Amino acid sequence: MDLVSLLRSTFGFSGFRENQEVVCRAVAEGRDVLLVMPTGAGKSLCYQLPAVARGGTALVVSPLIALMDDQAAKLYARGLKVARIHSGLPRDAAREACRAYLDGSLQFLFIAPERLRVPGFPEMLARRRPSLIAIDEAHCISGWGHDFRPDYRTLGDYLPLLRPAPIIALTATATPIVQKDIVAQLNLADPALYIHGFRRDNLAIEVVELSKPERAEFVAKFLDCAATRPAIVYAPSRKAADELALQLNGQFPAAAYHAGLEAGTRERVQRQFQAGQLEVVVATIAFGMGIDKANVRTILHAALPGSVEAYYQEIGRAGRDGLPSRAILLHSFADRRIHESFFERDYPAVDDLDRAARVLTADFQKPEVLCDHLTMGLEIFNKAVEKLCSQGAAQLDMDGNVRATGVSTWRHGYKTQLAHRRAQLEAIVEFAETPQCRMSALVRHFGDHAEASRPCGRCDFCAPHAAAAQRYAEPTPAEERDLSAILSTLKGNRAMAAGRLFTEAAVGKDRKYFDRLLDGLARAGLVTFASETWTNPLGREVTYKKVSLTHEGRELEMAEPLGVLLPEEREASAKSRRPRAEHRPTNGKGSDAAFTPLQAELESRLRKWRKAEADEAGKPAFFVFSDAILRALVEAAPRSIPELRTVRGIGPSKADRYGAAICALCRGQEPPALNGDGAF
Ligand code: ADP
Ligand code: ZN
Question: Which pTM value belongs to this model?
């Protein structure tokens, strides 16, 4: 099958985007597929092209009318034969669509999921089976997904009738647990899983622990540098958004955006930001859906978002033009507390739902009246009703009256929802608190394990020396001693609970200080963490952090500098500091590089070599040596190994491994071939 020429002739595209071809081929050949790619990656083509290639009619199930209309209009404009059936269209249109479907004159039939519940409709479809079935926004089928739709839940029941067509399920946001659920519920047969495209190479992610009162000042300082704008700041509440926007507006054009503003105001803010008249928008989660601005340089979260999925979507608005951009997340323990209280507020106990469900009848009634029968506040009652509705057990009419639907199986669904929400909170907290490559953690979260093993080289973990929000420094001699003490304590053990390590390493009483050192060791690749659970004698599950030495940590010679960088204390650094530009000057003309032209050239050669060496080993450049050492090397320009050994930060093992190359570069020669043994 010549998919490439079909791509050109039917869709007018000159070539496939990344991953599209392999997916199209699998679907065209009749395989079931689950496709998870971020918004904008080009998922639609992955069902549309195979549909045209296979001939016959493709059945597309889509949960949103607007989405369906948009897709159908685009296909129609390409000269394809398309029909839609959804509640927003006149009855005649549906009848006409069915007739065309049975005639075999359609290439695409779009339907809303609830349509399948209409008696006789699935049987009608089965009279002339589709050649392909696409399920868009497939995460809606899973109780684990955030947009759970009861009508999607029963989708799986009707599919056997429409087989043997291959099924392709598409979504942008499925985590591994949701992916599993989709496969199970749709009963996909030996599906090919494609989970791609979540890595963003131009995005430097930084996570900074900062107390709430310090954040407004931090944001103002950070965005003061013009290179950090345009920017979107996500604030935790409408009030916070208003206040921060007002404050920033004195520095540059800034405005707030949230659901509490009038539609006209929101529309204006969006338009002005798009046009560049506003440089910063301080928004609650509502902002960003409609905007398509390519040059957003910074996304700053002034509080911990509610889930990794939401966080990923929000930072995805930075750097669409492909140029270097930053995402900075500010958080502290207090954020976690706030989310926990939201959780309590928004998710009533199962028991409350039970009581609310018991007073509902088959007739619509006023909530206030029903509530009187219960000793339950109206607010909790309404929340409980909302949850029952989302599980399909209750229904509201236009006036807000409520009735039971007769669905009694909501309990399992609601419990799943609770567990899911809890897991989401745990995941975002873990993301913020675990020192690890931030981009890899995100990619792994979405289930792309192959891609997750490659560090990004840009985030605060991979490249602490280049961090803009948090400055890192080499440890003091006292800290260096304590770091060594932690490593020696670990040497005798395979793995240790962090708490025990804290006690045994005895580096002081301050747990925060200890954690800072431990994170530094992790950042330097000397230790790693694993999350372990243990059931205590009371039957409670306890989760704790287990620490173990990495290969590098075990191999380290004690006399060698550790190559650890520690975050500078904020009090000392916040006042004197400006965010740095994305690229540090390497041409000698820049502000902080007072190099001669010759030195600048050597610096750039060393940098290039360091990058190649690090790439070869699949590690960030920092693992070869830090920028501080690089600078020291440029200044000393050692031409022999003994000279090299006098440079601060170069121990025997580094000298051994890289000495020949460094000295060659300093002599102005080509370095010998890469080490490439991957062992550092
Ligand atoms: P998704 O469904 O993943 O959010 P879409 O399918 O809507 O993304 O595609 C996003 C945009 O990319 C659309 O405007 C689409 O026309 C365009 N697009 C998709 N595939 C290609 C391609 N191979 N070449 C050029 N443009 C493409
Ligand atoms: Zn990284």
Answer: 0.71
**pLDDT at site 1:** 61
Bridge-based pairing of strands 541-549 and 527-535 is: antiparallel
Question: In this structure, what token pair is assigned to residue 532?
Answer: 């372990």
pLDDT < 50 positions in the chain: 571-593, 676-680
Name the DSSP letter for residue 111: E
Ligand 1 contact via 42 beta carbon (within 6 Å) = yes
CB of residue 39 inside a 6 A radius of ligand 1: yes
φ, ψ (nearest 5 deg) of residue 640 = -140, 165
CA of 462 to the centre of ligand 2 (A): 4
The pLDDT value recorded for residue 358 is: 92
What secondary structure letter does DSSP report for 114?
G
307 in any annotated domain: yes
Domain membership flag for residue 413: yes
Alpha carbon of 320 to ligand 2 centroid (Å): 19
**Nearest ligand, CA 619:** 2
- Supply the pLDDT for residue 586: 36
CA of 34 to the centre of ligand 2 (A): 28
Token reading at 100: 């065309």
Pairing of strands 496-497, 541-549: antiparallel
Cβ 40 under 6 angstroms from ligand 1: yes
**Same-domain pairing of 287 and 389:** no
Q: Retrieve residue 262's tokens.
A: 């009038």
Query: How many helices (H) and strands (E) would you count in the chain?
Result: 29, 20
Ligand 1 centroid to 17 CA: how many Å? Answer: 8
**Domain end position, chosen among 148, 169, 195:** 195
Q: Which ligand 1 atom is the nearest neighbour of the CA of 39?
A: 4
Nearest protein CA to atom 9 of ligand 1, as residue = 42
Any domain includes 632: yes
Tokens of 287: 């902002």
My answer on whether 451 and 507 are in the same domain is: no
Q: State residue 39's pLDDT score.
A: 82
Domain count, the chain: 5
> 249 and 274: one domain?
yes
Residues 310 and 189 in one domain: no
- Taking the CA of residue 15 as reference, the ligand 1 atom at the shortest distance is 23
Locate the ligand 1 atom nearest the alpha carbon of residue 17 and give its number: 23
183 lies in the same domain as 51: yes
Which residue has its alpha carbon closest to ligand 1 atom 24?
Answer: 13
Q: Ligand 1 centre from 13 Cα, in Å?
A: 10
Residue 504 belongs to a domain with what CATH number? 1.10.10.10
The backbone region for 663, taken as left when phi is positive above 0, alpha when psi lies in -120 to 50, beta otherwise, is alpha
Instruction: Examine residue 431 and state whether it is found in any structural domain, yes or no.
Output: no
| CA of 71, closest atom in ligand 1 | 7
- Could you tell me if the CB of 13 is within 6 A of ligand 1? yes
Residue 499 shares a structural domain with residue 550:
yes
Q: What is the CATH number of the domain that holds 609?
A: 1.10.150.80
- Quick one: which ligand is closest to 23's CA? 1
Q: Can you tell me the distance from the alpha carbon of 110 to that of 642, in angstroms, rounded to the nearest whole number?
A: 73
Q: Torsions phi, psi of 357, nearest 5? A: -60, -35
Q: Which of 110, 16, 22, 14 has its CA nearest to residue 60? A: 110
Cβ–Cβ contacts within 10 Å for residue 422, how many?
13
- pLDDT for the residue 71: 92
Which residues constitute the domain of residue 648? 592-666
Query: Does 139 lie in the same domain as 109?
Result: yes
Q: How far is CA 109 from CA 26, 167, 176, 361, in A?
A: 21, 14, 30, 38
Residue 228 structure tokens: 């950090």
Question: Who contacts 372 (Cβ-Cβ below 8 Å, separation ≥6)?
Answer: none
